[in-house]
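Reopening this ticket.

The earlier resolution said the output was attached, but the attachment link was broken on my side. Pasting everything inline this time so it's all in one place.
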Amino acid sequence: MDLDVSMDTWNFFYTCLVSFWLHRFYIYSAVAFGISIWIVMQFTTIKLKKKVTEHAGISQGNPAASERVKDKLVNGCATLQAKEVYVAGVKIFYGSQTGTAKRFAKDLAEAVTSLHLPVEAISMGDYDPDDCLSEETTSRNVCVFLVATYTDGQPPESAAWFCKWLEEAASDFRFGKTHLRGLRYAVFGLGNSVYVDQYNTVGRNIDRWLWMLSASRIMTRAEGDCNVAQSKHGSIEADFEAWKAKFLSRLQALCRGEKKPCSEKCKKEKCKSLGKQSKESSDHEHKASEYKKTEAEELFETSSEEEADAEEHGGTNSVVDVEDLGNIMSHMKKAKRERELEEGDAGMSLTGENSGRKEESEKREMITPALREALTKQGYRLIGGHSGVKLCRWTKSMLRGRGGCYKHTFYGIESHRCMEATPSLACANKCVFCWRHHTNPVGTEWRWKMDQPEMILQEAIENHQNMIKQFKGVSGVKADRFEEALAVKHCALSLVGEPIMYPDINRFVKLLHQHSISSFLVTNAQFPDEIRNLVPVTQLYVSVDASTKESLKRIDRPLFKDFWQRFLDSLKALSEKQQRTVYRLTLVKAWNVDELKAYADLISLGKPDFIEVKGVTYCGESSASSLTMANVPWHEEVVGFVQELASLIPDYEIACEHEHSNCLLIAHKKFKIKGEWCTWIDYERFQELAREHERSGGSRTFTAADYAATTPPWALFGSRERGFDPVDVRYQRKNRARDISGC
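Inline output:
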């Protein structure tokens, strides 16, 4: 039985072999056909995959799209498979005081959005770096820091905590030097180079602290300069636009997984910047080559190269042996010398036009397009490249017979015939109570293209007259005053800025007098030499906003490092003037009202003819100032301060009051002649004396007493009118917003 089964199995196997051999041709054909089908499928798959990938890479102009997905065909079916994302999104952190950094952040966010990348603009004040910043080390986001430098090199209030945390983390061993390894960032600082010692310190510090925590720069730090004379592109807006274009280009390269193009300056001929970017492209081993300063990057000041050099020879996390420290420092110094030599050689080979780069910058217009737009919105009529004129609210008030300003009460000017102007919009201070909200430029010396005084005066008068003409036919405007207002009689050089900075201020003042226009010039007591060299003016003011060095720095925020000595020298220079001089005190409650003895000492130093004491005017909320309504003293508080001050200066008495302006006048007793105050000005007599002085070449001098006039009873302190001219009718609106204009 077993033998029969074995024979049957063998017969079956033999039959199959014979059948396979007899039909081998058909079997070979079937196998060949199957292989052909498989080859065709593989070819189709590769071609389709390439086509879809290319389409994804160029769709909607997004260079990052090709890196997000790719199509993979398996058994003839297409399935989506996620690919590595090099840039997941962009986070823009901004620290702003006046709103510029916030505006730049919004602008940059819109530009990044156009690249179809997720973007988020975040105020540093709304962000907790302790909880959230470390998450960016693995998020594959690019972090951008736009931060301004504020008073004394400090960060804006909104960025103070962020910067404090970052500084402490960089020096705290508990965080570790690799705390932010993997975070990719770029920094754009906002500052003003006239503050030499504090220029862009916040941006530089943030850049340094991030680097110390092993974060990786994607490009060198850039710095925008509000000082148009020194800004590399003419304005801080132009600096930002130049950096933004560079940043977007770098961002697109990162999205494609590329490193920075080789600058052909790689050290030791080891270029690491070619090819695709690996997962570890943000690590410090790539920094030295990846962030080398290229020719385009030299537009921006940075210190990252020195740090990269140090890193290449030691690494952020490596322990440097004492014996090796000297070699590292020598290398850094050598690299720095090489850069300086390269820059020097380049400078020697420049043409005359390029070698005069500094002179070129000095010829820039003071008024940038952005500044022109801002000042025009505020009602300024701008003249040439650095001057302006604006209609004072008291001019409008007196046209309607509603009263004049305190100068009308104290000195007898006709407010409707007064032109408020300035030949220099630039200022050397950034006072907390500036009612122009710091829209004007700042500087310590004249570095701009200069207009001729004849042109400035002509256009100032024309612009002033055009603004007056707009009141023709307006209800309440008195016809006789309207006609008088078209002939300018007074000029208050107190509009904005520092008029005495204008190099041709003396010619400008002389032109005013030639047109029979009196001159009221205000200076911030930072230019003593210019005060000494100033030709006679009708009345020269010095703003004395504080009586101690500390409070002056806090209130005026001067640009000069030697501001206090300049302040004292200016007061001494004022005491040498023979014409009328005035101290202008602005009281800021809780800031400078408790320094009576110090004010008395300053008065004895400058010996002014008059002292105007005025309560600060609240100009509305401003990000550039912490001033609030709580800092505005009541009129009775100003009166109390003046009475106490007058008791400390025996040669002076309270002469006049203008309650409507919250202002009082203290006058030297020499102006109280035969029991009558003579604080008013005989303007015709002054013009005669000024012409005689000019014709004599300055040999015929005159004093303040030579053109004094009797003060009317209604203007005196203690009068029933409290300084309001009874000829006019006082008008008060109910529940009206405070008008911030004035002189």
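Reporter confirms the inline version is readable. The chain has a mean pLDDT of 79. The first helix runs from residue 2 to 22.
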